[in-house]
Amino acid sequence: MRSHLLNDTTAEQYRRSVTEGVERVAAKLATTDRPFTGVTVDALAPRIEQIDLDRPLNDTTAVLDELEDVYLRDAIYFHHPRYLAHLNCPVVIPAILGEAILSAVNSSVDTWDQSAGGTLIERRLVDWTAGRIGLGPAADGVFTSGGTQSNLQALLLAREEAKSGDLAKLRVFASEVSHFSVKKSAKLLGLAPDAVISVPVDQNKRMQTVALARELERCHRDGLVPMAVVATAGTTDFGSIDPLPEIAELCARSGTWMHVDAAYGCGLLVSPARRHLLKGIERADSVTVDYHKSFFQPVSSSAVLVRDAATLRHATYHADYLNPRRMVQERIPNQVDKSLQTTRRFDALKLWVTLRTMGADGIGRLFDEVCDLAEEGWKLLAADPRFDVVVEPSISTLVFRYIPEAVTDPAEIDRANLYARKALFASGDAVVAGTKVGGRHYLKFTLLNPETTADDIAAVLDLIAGHAEQYLGDSLDRAS
Ligand SMILES: Cc1ncc(COP(=O)(O)O)c(C=O)c1O
Description:
Bound molecules: pyridoxal-5'-phosphate
Low-confidence stretches: none
CATH architecture of the domain at 98-356: 3-Layer(aba) Sandwich
Order of helices and strands: HHHEHHEHEHEHEHEEHEHHEEHEEH
């Protein structure tokens, strides 16, 4: 069994084994003609259930054959141009190289003595990102597992900085289309059930700052404490960007922590054409960035950045065995002092290898391409009488719904759209997402693949229309 341990004596086996895995994936990618096979839970679950985990196969090739059956064949492939659903990007090869290296070396970036250069590389990337945002000389931050954790940590710091002894009085302001992790964080942080005030959005799905000003005033008047305003730079459903300069102004006036959730919109930080859309982000107290959304990085790769490094002390705890207090005086860099996690992956390496290979502009240009594509998709949808499209995209999301000529019942139109999404998924021809707008069911394309073309969009719209019509035809048959 020791032959499976990665060390000086097994380097050759490591090379062979990993190469075999890489070959499988490469072959799969070269032959995958749909983003999904359409496999059902009922068909797949028994194949996984029947595997006896107490009887190992003891052979890499056999394990990979089995994996083909239980995973690779039926996985959802984000690299496919007709995967248009959630905020999953295709990944760049330099990042995969970084991933392979980081898991083999297996540094843990909680302490210097478990990572050495890993800690310094992560720190450089935090500084680089903070510099791109424009947070100023006292900025700092740390890599996290994702936007949810980044938002949680930012709100933890905001809660502590609010310096209110009464948690029940704290209020967080976020637009009605902000990410649900804001509410989840409020709950985890022990805030009141009604602590998150939902601020209405305008017709472009951007936070209404007049309403925010009113809510902040009301909060003060009611003797409550505004803990944070969460501005979203790239909402999950619409890609809309809240008016950051105006929100910054209101936060400054009311002395409220400004958090910018740029989990999605962070790709604009490197965009040669669209960086201006993030104007005002430099005034934030904290920012969430998800490199695994718009920097073409594999899951997971995210960070929380703060304007004032000192605020990270709210996440600092010392343990004699790991990061004793004296290490701070000795200037030993232990990232665990800033993180909610202890053992932590060296995810930063993926971004490092990516930047050193393609450069920031290279990533930004890819992101610009998907934003350009969304503009084309918008024109297609706006000109197509079969569809109602919600807002012109600020980034790369399109929300729309099929509207049959002959049907006026909104509930029936809902059912036709829900059916179309399901049928498309079952066919595996394309994967699209869905959401609700004004209580009605809509479909959503999140465009993150520069390989997707306007023709792909047009073809998927035809498929959706076909499935919806099929449903409506069947429904008429059922009624007659
Ligand atoms: C705006 C926004 N914030 C936060 C998140 C949560 O990020 P993660 O899924 O990486 O936890 C998402 C995820 O889609 C998001 O769109």
